[in-house]
Amino acid sequence: MKAFIKKHQYNYIKRCLNDLSNTYKTCSDSNVIDAFKSYTQDKIFNLFPSLSEEERELLILDKINDPSDINNYLTSLDKYAYGMPVITSTQISKLFKKEKKLKLPDLNQENSKNVYLGWIDKASNKLFVAYNMDDKIIGMACRITSTDSKKANICSLCNCIHVENEVAFVSPICKTSNAAEGGYKSIGFTICLDSDKCNDRIESVEKLEDILKEVNNIK
Ligand SMILES: [Zn+2]
Question: In what residue span(s) does the Elongation factor G-binding protein C-terminal treble-clef zinc-finger domain sit (predicted)?
Answer without folding.
Answer: 97-207
